[in-house]
Amino acid sequence: MSKIIKKIGVLTSGGDSSGMNAAIRSVVRTCAFHGLECVGIYRGYEGLMEGDFINLDARSVKGIINKGGTILKSARSEEFKTKEGRQKAYDKLIESNVDGLVVIGGDGSFTGAMIFNQEFDFPVMGIPGTIDNDIFGTTHTLGFDTALNTVVEAIDKIRDTASSHNRLFFIEVMGRDVGHIALNAGVAGGAEEILIPEEDLGLERLEESLRRSRKSGKSSSIVIVAEGDKIGKNIFELKEYVDENMSGYDVRVSVLGHMQRGGSPSCFDRVLASRMGVKAVESILEGKTNFMVGLLNNKMELTPLENAIKGKSKINLELLRVSDIMTT
Ligand code: ADP
């Protein structure tokens, strides 16, 4: 029999993303709904080891569903990677009578949660919060949709100046290992070419595509480049390459950077966060542990943390084909 759950802790860890506040709100209100106490833990695993906790009731999370970032702050902690660090964290949870932990974060945070669960048999549940959408077991992570909307808005604005001046723009978006942001935002923003880490298009293909686009009468072009594209050149090197090898292009570069992480969460992310928070708390109440809550076929589903961490989130091949057709 699993032990009776009376108090749940919630923390945000690793890279922040929009929708984390909406998820905290949902965890807190679901606890209140079921008559459980809830504590917020500041600064991820750092605050957990220090016992930096705050009691949260349904009213203390008012007015945050529309806020980017995380009211609990996020942090990275080297100490939590040690057994001593995790022992400290366990002692603080026991001291405060916390019976279960909801971790909102990415695969690093989930690795920490999984090891912690294995060592102390402490109930943990993960909520995927990262803009990269690189977690197995969910079609969407919190913050991905908001980041896409931000990127598409930026592409639209850059296109105005690109077409006014007949320019070629390389726009770098986040996604070191995965091209989800680049592919989706590229299709939505009508990019002429999209360079993602999963595909090696090669510089020749890029050249050919730009020439084709010019021939077809386009006066400006937008190329979306994921941080980790396989051509192996960073965005400034791409500009240099075109400057040196292709005449007649006025090339500009725009790196969108951290603006992609922040901002008021989209409707989609707010709804997703609300659903995930409910599922996380109710799953702990049902005695489930060491899972991540995810969205699959529009249903809330649980995936073992180990699979969520080790599994690969694959690029959508159908969308890749759509992108190829659209950039013809
Ligand atoms: P994200 O959760 O966004 O992937 P990180 O990879 O930085 O972010 O991980 C966040 C935190 O999770 C780390 O600072 C560390 O405290 C914890 N963590 C990551 N890997 C491990 C591990 N192998 N063992 C214990 N804790 C870990």
Question: What does this molecule look like?
Answer:
Its EC number is 2.7.1.11. Mg(2+) binds at residue 107. ADP binds at residues 25-29, 159, 190-192, 218-220. Residues 7-283 form the Phosphofructokinase domain. Substrate binds at residues 130-132, 167, 174-176, 227, 252, 258-261. With 328 residues, the protein is an alpha/beta fold. It has 2 domains: 7-143 and 265-310, 3-Layer(aba) Sandwich (Rossmann fold), CATH 3.40.50; 144-261, Phosphofructokinase domain (Rossmann fold), CATH 3.40.50. It has 11 helices and 11 strands. Strands 3-2-1-4-5-10-11 form a 7-stranded mixed beta sheet, sandwiched between helices. The protein has a 4-stranded parallel beta sheet with strand order 7-8-6-9, with helices on both faces. α5 (144-164) packs across α6 (180-188). The longest helix has 21 residues, at 144-164. It is elongated, with a radius of gyration of 22 Å. It starts with 6 loop residues before the first strand and ends with a helix. Bound molecules: adenosine-5'-diphosphate.
Strand content: 15-25%
Give the radius of gyration: 22 Å
Q: State mean pLDDT (0 to 100 scale).
A: 94
| Through-space gap between termini | 60 Å
CATH topology of the largest domain: Rossmann fold
Molecules bound to protein:
adenosine-5'-diphosphate
Report the structural category. Answer: alpha/beta
* Net shape: elongated
The number of distinct β-strands equals 11
- Major sheet attributes: 7 strands, mixed
Question: What topology, given as strand order, has the largest sheet?
Answer: 3-2-1-4-5-10-11
The appropriate CATH architecture of the largest domain is 3-Layer(aba) Sandwich
Poorly predicted ranges: none
Q: How many domain modules?
A: 2
**The first-level CATH class name of the largest domain:** Alpha Beta
Pathway: Carbohydrate degradation; glycolysis; D-glyceraldehyde 3-phosphate and glycerone phosphate from D-glucose: step 3/4
Protein name: ATP-dependent 6-phosphofructokinase
Keywords: Allosteric enzyme, ATP-binding, Cytoplasm, Glycolysis, Kinase, Magnesium, Metal-binding, Nucleotide-binding, Transferase
Family: Belongs to the phosphofructokinase type A (PFKA) family. ATP-dependent PFK group I subfamily. Prokaryotic clade 'B1' sub-subfamily.
